[in-house]
Amino acid sequence: MNIDDLLNDPIQYVKKTAQSCGRNVVAFFPVGVPIELIHAANLQQFPLIIMSEDFSAADAYMHTFACSLSRSVLQKFLSGDLDFVKAFIIPDICDSLWSLYNIVKLTDPNRKLYLFHYPPKKDDKSLNYFKGEIIKLWEFLKELSLSQSSEEILKDSITKFNEQRKLLRKLNNMRKSNSPPFSGTDFFKLMLAAFFMPVEHHIDMLNSILGNIEKWGTKKEGVRLLVSGHMVENVALIELIEESGGLIVADDMDIGSRHFSQDLAVRKDIFAGIAEHYLMTPSPYRHSVEDRAEYILKLAKEFDASGVIFLIRKFCDPYLFDYPILRRMLEEEGIPSLLLEYEFPFSAAILRNRVEAFIEMLR
Amino acid sequence: MYVAGIDVGAATAKCVIMDDGEIVGYEIIPVSYDLSESAKRVFNATLKKLGISADEIKSVVSTGYGRYNVPFAKKQVTEISCHGRGAIFLIPSTRTIIDIGGQDTKVIAINERGRVLDFVMNDKCAAGTGRFLEVMARVLDVKVEEMGEIALRAKKKVKISSTCTVFAESEVINHLVHKVPREDIIAGLVDAISSRVAALAQRVTIRPDVILTGGVAKNEAVRRSLSEKLGLEILRPKEPQIVGAIGAALFARDILQGKR
């Protein structure tokens, strides 16, 4: 199955892969949930992205100012399309996901749910607390597994994901060039695949791409941009930016550079290492906005981005609360930014108008 | 040598024809559902007014929401960039533009050459746009162009608290039920629209001179109320609806001169 087929029907992809590997499926929101734990428990990971643009069933339970991601997942859940999912990991990062957790619990009391808690700070106490949460999640996942697991296996999983991270960094660094060999659209497709595919398959894919980089992807010219947000669950959004004269050369996203910017260090206390890795990556759910600004500025400089587009799903509180401060901070550093708030299904004409105006401004 | 700028907006289509950097004529028409037809119609009406033929127009640039529906345009430029160019042409001291159109409201910061430095647009709903006033004009049985003058006669203004245009319409009906004078309701609506626009404007760094453009700029009460809320004088070009089309015509001239 190629990436486009996977993205056209992610549910079918997950079902087939789990079946062929003989694994149970665990769905999770890609907001910094340690994917290594799912892999080490020999479970098939299922990153929850927008899978429905019809929210009619979900809207009977959830207020319309919940984000389209939570409403789309609820819609699929209520329709029975996610019945094959053994368990859901729902992080407590925002009100929409809390609401989703409660509705799922109410409508299907027997469904296995794991509410994953993050500490809001990154001090020693928080780190210790988070380590405890990770151990609890690990125990939960091991119970779902059809095979035995151990800390040794977890170490192997971390090594594999670090190999994937290294290859993604190698590819990502090529975007620093004046004329990158591939577009932002190509890269985001590959990033989505990184979260869906078994890591071993994805590593093979990355090696084959790196071995023949000239033949992979589409070379594009355009105004160099950095995108910041949660993830690009629909690459049509990135295509729209690149068709309007932009070229995405860097990102500050969960399904993006936050996943691969640093290796996960294997410590003697393996869970402390995992906690540190996921807690230290700047994100709006558990960090000060200054950390995020520093991360974005560093990326913008390294990748020579002329501007930043904040690609934020409507009603996504964690990102929208950070935005006005980040905008000011970037402005002080002379980096122009644009807020592109989108909803699914999105209105291409309205978004295109803003992107074209932003690019005309940067040219 | 003649050049033209065509601005196909959500409510009206505007065409400006320039010759050697001077405006020689313009037209404003309401748009139909067929934006290409509206573009052609406004172009032909302007040509007819000036007594010149389409062949004499050496370059056309289109802008506005329907800019890709103008097949005879050489280039499309967003209304944001066009407003920057047009504003500097009309009032060279302009540094901030507040444009209240039929469907959207934008605030644009520009430099002394009319280049855009920053911009924000409304992205929630029709509240704070020309459409808001159009809807209310229908309920109040007044012409939208008379609303400014009526509002200035108000003794007091009612509070319109709903952000949503549809809910605000219900509030207006409720005031009518309670026999609140029409001018007081319109003054309340003017206050509501200018509050929303002022909140949007403060997201960019506002530098004087500030000019108000778009169809709603013709409403003197909105201009005064906005000026009061932002605490600075707001200027208005003689014809505030054609600023984008002027900018487009200037971009059309650039093409002839080999720029951009």
Describe the structure.
The complex is a heterodimer of chains A (363) and B (260). Helix content of chain A is 52%, strand content 12%. In chain A, the strands form 2 sheets. Chain A has a 4-stranded parallel beta sheet with strand order 2-1-3-4, sandwiched between helices. A 4-stranded parallel beta sheet of chain A has the order 6-5-7-8, sandwiched between helices. The mean pLDDT of chain A is 94. Chain A is an alpha/beta fold and 363 residues long. Chain A folds into 2 domains: 3-151, Rossmann fold (3-Layer(aba) Sandwich); 174-362, Rossmann fold (3-Layer(aba) Sandwich). Chain A is globular. A 5-stranded mixed beta sheet of chain B has the order 3-2-1-4-5. Helices cover 39% and strands 22% of the residues of chain B. Chain B has 2 domains: 1-91 and 242-260, 2-Layer Sandwich (Nucleotidyltransferase, domain 5), CATH 3.30.420.40; 93-236, ATPase, nucleotide binding domain (Nucleotidyltransferase, domain 5). Chain B is α/β, with parallel strands linked by helices. In chain B, strand 7 (105-110) and strand 8 (116-121) form a beta hairpin. At the A-B interface, helix 15 of A face helix 2 and strand 8 of B.
Protein traits:
heterodimer, A: 363 residues, alpha/beta, Rossmann fold, 2 domains, four-stranded parallel sheet, 15 helices, 8 strands, 52% helix, 12% strand, B: 260 residues, Nucleotidyltransferase, domain 5, five-stranded mixed sheet, 39% helix, 22% strand
